[in-house]
Amino acid sequence: MVSKAVAKYVHALHQKKYRLRHGAFLVEGGKSVLELLSSTLLTERLFVTAEFAAKISPFPPQVPVEVLSAEELTRLGTLATNQTALAVARLPQESPLPTVPGLLLALDEVRDPGNLGTLIRLADWYGLPGVVCSDTCADPWSPKTVAATMGSFTRVPVWQRDLPQWLASLPPEMPVYGADLHGDNVHHLRLQPQGVLVMGSESHGLTPAVEQCLTKRLHIPGRGQAESLNVAISAAILLDNFFRAG
């Protein structure tokens, strides 16, 4: 049985202000917890069901572990049901933004945590050095975002910045790409995976201040009647063109 003090602490981490105050976040579900335990991120506390406990024996040294019923575990977290595990992890120390050539993904007001998590997962798939989020994006460390990364939260650095200010500070020779209905057909270009690819929210696109920082506008041609593409789908198509062989 979890103590009232511990339960209160875990419940507090459902909210961003307490995640920032305590420097900790929640990781829910067996796959994500196993990814956490095999990463360099610090695990502060672990809650598991008896069935799941057998999969992570021996337990990590110096990490408090409590074995709970699935009902108790579910009450602690945010998932509708949780029959495996929940962990409290320490927020990682922010690493310096990379200065070596490569392609960074930047996100402008992507407020849906599911989309944000999927975009972080895409960055992991394509081996990007990290993701830069505007300070108006969803919280990268919310339980829904972490779950949507499918474990990629352990491998992809994330920075939160005033995006127009950060983009304006980049070297003038660094290309800044963005999606635009009036941009160049991405399928007709030979793109190199260097610079910054900026993606905006599905409903509003890029904010004017961010749009002014673009040096190259890219268009994904379509043939049907759909009004728009999901931001994560658009990012996947564009990223694939950056890494296309030949």
From TrEMBL:
* Residues of the MRM3-like substrate binding domain: 8-87
Q: Which UniProt keywords are listed?
A: Methyltransferase, Transferase
Q: Which GO terms describe its biological process?
A: methylation
- Protein's UniProt keywords contain Cell membrane: no
Matching Pfam families: MRM3-like_sub_bind, SpoU_methylase
Tell me where in this chain the tRNA/rRNA methyltransferase SpoU type domain is found: 103-239
Highest taxon of the source? Bacteria
Q: Name one GO molecular function term.
A: methyltransferase activity
The UniProt entry, under InterPro entries, shows: MRM3-like_sub_bind, rRNA_Methyltransferase, SpoU_MeTrfase
Show the coiled coil region(s). none
Which family is this protein grouped under?
Belongs to the class IV-like SAM-binding methyltransferase superfamily. RNA methyltransferase TrmH family.
Mind telling me what this protein is named? Answer: RNA methyltransferase
